[in-house]
Each structure stands twice: as structure tokens, then as C-alpha cells.
């Protein structure tokens, strides 16, 4: 293996120091996370500003940081992606008023505890399993994209780069728990925003007209247009953005454990509401910043008169390595790794919490010593259970880290997968699967008591209908844009559950103890 560094030793040192500092801080912050509550929900004691920063950083992956600028860099690109962000804002406020209250009734550790209380253990475990599978696949794809960037910078094999990034994240997520993840997210948010601003500054400094030339170039090519009012199921437009984006946000921030876990870390319901509500407008502004980076890149290459042959998703990464000056290149690369580590660490922590709470905890409670030495309800018995679940949480954090590294390596060695748009794959998978769970949550708020059989049939139907609509066969005459995936999945799940329950009425089983 040859090491072909394309960056200076100063930039390489900045990146390495950043990763080392992240590991050290993560371990130090999480040194007191020795209980299940401390490891999984930070003892429910984190300030709302920290939770807000973590929410934004968690939903900003390397895919977002590198691929969103490519949207406006494209010849016919514009700010239309912000239509989806409008829906994200609306969806968050619906979560605050509709779902958030149920998460602060009693002591729960995952979003799927609510489903257990309403439908039973099988529905809870099915929703949790869907989350685990899709989260592992989606974040494995994100890890793959970050590995590609590191490969371009160092010349090291992509699989090794994926393993290195994954291993570094596993260390602090495993040792520090969610408290470590949240505070590191806040630092990583600052780093990657600084990286985006630095890129714009470098480009503006190299243009005769400075920042104004970027704006003029964007206006001339109509890149700042972002509202498309005509309705269509097959393309991105205002209706798809507001309606589809609301459902995506409802699903991702109201039923997806990776986001719900952050809300459960807040000191109270009010703090969680402030964090969630404030994150919507800030994410909108963040998307606008990343899209402006793409406009700046287009102005830069237009000024040089250089024809860019790279894929639009690769342009920003190539610019960072080839054009950014010493020091700023290292900062911006650290930003790339920061968003990757933020999303990956959040994914590992939430996946571990889902396995431990939804699958292992019921079994361990039955195994808890009940002899005369340790009474089942005694302090000793509860301490035994807490210690065992905390150890299991650390173990499963590491296991899911290994699984996501494996997904990334599989994509590297599968040309047919690697050739497709990573950002489109991630959005489609997330919207489809979280939409199914959203449909179940909607059913949970209905007055009718549904049988678990109806729920499971509905989720299966929702999956196949959504796949057929979003990814139709080549000969099909229809095509539905991916922004509608959560709407179709949740709507189909809701309708089919009602139909099955009406056609085959059966008493719903009592929730498992």
C-alpha cells in the first residue's frame, strides 16, 4: 500500500489532532456514564441548547455536507431543496404538540416503548427492528462517502479509511455514552459550519468581484430560485416539500430513535420542545449555507474557465483538497470527518439503546435474581439489572459500529451500488422506513384498539406499496418523487390497518408486562 498524501503535513496534522481531541473529550465527558440512564439518556440532565446542537449535527451527515453543494453546482441546479426544509420546520412543531407529551410520561428509553404500551411487545420489537436495520444500512452508506473523501486525500484504500473513521467513532461512543455524543456533536456543529464559511471566503477572495460576483453569477444562472408551485408527484415542488417534508420530519424526529433519544436527554419536556422547535429554522439556514457553497463553486470554476468532469457530489471534496490553502484545508477536512463522526456516533448510541431496551431488558428482568439473597424488587436486584444492561449497551454500541463499517466496505466492493447517488439512497431508505413507523404511531392515537396482527400486515403492505411507487419497474408508467415516501408509507400503513381490523375483527392482546 502506497501513501500518496495530497495535502500538506500541516493539514494532515490538523485532521489527526481533531480526531484525537474528539476521542479524548468524548471519553472525559462520558467518564461518569456508569448507569443505564446515564449511558442511554445522559441522566436526563442535558441543557436544551446542547440537545438543539446535537439534533442539528446528527441530521447533518457527510452526505449533506458534500452533496448538497453539488445540487446548486449542477448546471440546472437551484435552491429548490429548501422547499423540503420548509416541511421539516412544520413537521417539528407537529411533533412538539402531538408526540412529545407521550415521551415524558413515565420513564422510557426509546420511542418504541410507547408502542409497547399501546399495542404490545411484538409491535414494539418490529418497529425497533425496522429502525435497527435501516439505520445500519443508511449510516453505513454515509460512512462509505466519508471514506471516499479520506481515500482521495491520502491515497489509502477506501476500505481501510472506512474502518479507521468507524473505529475512532466507536471508541468514544462506547466509552462515553450519549452524553459524550451530544457534547461532541455541539463541537462538530461549530467545526463543519466554520468549514463551509471558510470555503466561501476562499472562493470570494479569489474572484475579482468578491462575494458580490458569486451573488451576481448565481442570479444570472437563476440558481437562487427555490419555489416551484406547480403540483406534481414525480418532481420536487413546494407541495412535495411542505407535505412530504412534514411527514419526513414527523417520522424522523417523532418516531426515529436516533432523534427521540436526544429529546429524552433534555431536563424536561419544555427543554425538549425548545431544542426541537429551534432546530427547524436553523437547519433551514444551514441548508441555505451549503447550497450557497455550491453557487460559489460554480462561480469559481466559471471564472477559471475550467470544465469540471467530476460528479456533482465529488466537486466540493475535490475543491477542498486542490484549492483550499494550508490550514483551511485541514479545517475543512476536519469538518467532513466531524459530520461523519457525529452522525455515526449518534446512530451507534441510538441503535444500542433500541436493542437493550426493546429486546434485552424484558429478558434480563425475567432473569433478575429472585432468591432470598437478592429480592427481585430490592435495591440489589435493580443494581444488578442496571449494571448488566449498561454493559450490554457498550457492547452493542461496538457491534453496530462494526456492522456499519461492514456495510461501507460492501458498497466499496459493489460497483453497481457505489455508482448510484448516495444522498438519494439515504433519503429514500430513511423516509420509507420511518414512514411505516409513523403510520403505527398515528394508529396508536386513534380511539380504536387495533390487533397486533392488523398492525403487522399494514406495515408489510406499506413497505411494498411504497417501494413500488418510489422505485417502480422500468416499464411502469408512473414514478413518484422520493419526498413523498413517508406520506405513502404512513398513509398505506394507516389505511390497511383499518381495513384489516374491520374485515377480521379480533380483540387486541393486552400489552406484555
SSE map:
Elements lengths: L8 H21 L6 H6 L6 H11 L3 H12 L8 H17 L1 H4 L9 H6 L2 H34 L3 H48 L4 H11 L17 H17 L2 H9 L3 H36 L10 H8 L5 H40 L11 H34 L2 H4 L3 H23 L7 H19 L14 H19 L10
Describe the structure.
The chain has 513 residues and is mainly α. The chain has a single domain (9-415), classed as Sodium/glucose cotransporter. Helix content is 74%, strand content 0%. It contains 20 helices and no strands. The chain has helices at 9-29, 36-41, 48-58, 62-73, 82-98, 100-103, 113-118, 121-154, 158-205, 210-220, 238-254, 257-265, 269-304, 315-322, 328-367, 379-412, 415-418, 422-444, 452-470, 485-503. Helix 3 (48-58) crosses helix 13 (269-304) and helix 8 (121-154) crosses helix 16. The longest helix has 48 residues, at 158-205. The model is unreliable at 371-379 (pLDDT under 50).
Amino acid at each position: 500500500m502506497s501513501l500518496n498524501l495530497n495535502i500538506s503535513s500541516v493539514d494532515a496534522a490538523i485532521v489527526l489532532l481533531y480526531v484525537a481531541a474528539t476521542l479524548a473529550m468524548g471519553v472525559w465527558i462520558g467518564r461518569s456514564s456508569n448507569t443505564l440512564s446515564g449511558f442511554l439518556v445522559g441522566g436526563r440532565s442535558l441543557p436544551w441548547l446542547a440537545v438543539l446542537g446535537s439534533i442539528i449535527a446528527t441530521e447533518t451527515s457527510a452526505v449533506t455536507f458534500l452533496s448538497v453543494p453539488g445540487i446548486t453546482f449542477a448546471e440546472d441546479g437551484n435552491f429548490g431543496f429548501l422547499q423540503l426544509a420548509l416541511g421539516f420546520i412544520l413537521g417539528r412543531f407537529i411533533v412538539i404538540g402531538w408526540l412529545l407529551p407521550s415521551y415524558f410520561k413515565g420513564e422510557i428509553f426509546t420511542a418504541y416503548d410507547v408502542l409497547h404500551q399501546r399495542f404490545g411487545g411484538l409491535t414494539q420489537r418490529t418497529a425497533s427492528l425496522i429502525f435497527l436495520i435501516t439505520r445500519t444500512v443508511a449510516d453505513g452508506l454515509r460512512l462509505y462517502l466519508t471514506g471516499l473523501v479520506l481515500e482521495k486525500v491520502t491515497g489509502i484504500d477506501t476500505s481501510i479509511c472506512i474502518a479507521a473513521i468507524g473505529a475512532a467513532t466507536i471508541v468514544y461512543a462506547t466509552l462515553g455514552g450519549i452524553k459524550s455524543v451530544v457534547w461532541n456533536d455541539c463541537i462538530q456543529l461549530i467545526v463543519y459550519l466554520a468549514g463551509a464559511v471558510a470555503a466561501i471566503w476562499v472562493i470570494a477572495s479569489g474572484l475579482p468581484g468578491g462575494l458580490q460576483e458569486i451573488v451576481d453569477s448565481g442570479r444570472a444562472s437563476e440558481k437562487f430560485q427555490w419555489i416551484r408551485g406547480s403540483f406534481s408527484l414525480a418532481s420536487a415542488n413546494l407541495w412535495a416539500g411542505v407535505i412530504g417534508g412534514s411527514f419526513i420530519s414527523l417520522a424522523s424526529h417523532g418516531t426515529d430513535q436516533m432523534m427521540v433519544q436526544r429529546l429524552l436527554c433534555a431536563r424536561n419536556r419544555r427543554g425538549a420542545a425548545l431544542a426541537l422547535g429551534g432546530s427547524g429554522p436553523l437547519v433551514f439556514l444551514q441548508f441555505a449555507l451549503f447550497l450557497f457553497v455550491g453557487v460559489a463553486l460554480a462561480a469559481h470554476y466559471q471564472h477559471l474557465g475550467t470544465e469540471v468532469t467530476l460528479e456533482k457530489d465529488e466537486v466540493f471534496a475535490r475543491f477542498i483538497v486542490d484549492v483550499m490553502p494550508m490550514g483551511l484545508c485541514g479545517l475543512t477536512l476536519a469538518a467532513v470527518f466531524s459530520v461523519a463522526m457525529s452522525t455515526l456516533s449518534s446512530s451507534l448510541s441510538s441503535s444500542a439503546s433500541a436493542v437493550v431496551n426493546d429486546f434485552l431488558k424484558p429478558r434480563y428482568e425475567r432473569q433478575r435474581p429472585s432468591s432470598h439473597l437478592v429480592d427481585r424488587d430490592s435495591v440489589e436486584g435493580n443494581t444488578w439489572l442496571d449494571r448488566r444492561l449498561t454493559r450490554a449497551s457498550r457492547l452493542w454500541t461496538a457491534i453496530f459500529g462494526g456492522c456499519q463499517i461492514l456495510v461501507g466496505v460492501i458498497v466499496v466492493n459493489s460497483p453497481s451500488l457505489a455508482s448510484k447517488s448516495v444522498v438519494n439512497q439515504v433519503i429514500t431508505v430513511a423516509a420509507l422506513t420511518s414512514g411505516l413507523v409513523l403510520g403505527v404511531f398515528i394508529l396508536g392515537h386513534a380511539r380504536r384498539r387495533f390487533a397486533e396482527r392488523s398492525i403487522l400486515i399494514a406495515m408489510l403492505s406499506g413497505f411494498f406499496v411504497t417501494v413500488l411507487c418510489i422505485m417502480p419497474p422500468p416499464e411502469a408508467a408512473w414514478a413518484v418523487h422520493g419526498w413523498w415516501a413517508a406520506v405513502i408509507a404512513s398513509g398505506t400503513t394507516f389505511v390497511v390497518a383499518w381495513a384489516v381490523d374491520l374485515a377480521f375483527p379480533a380483540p387486541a392482546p393486552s400489552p406484555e408486562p
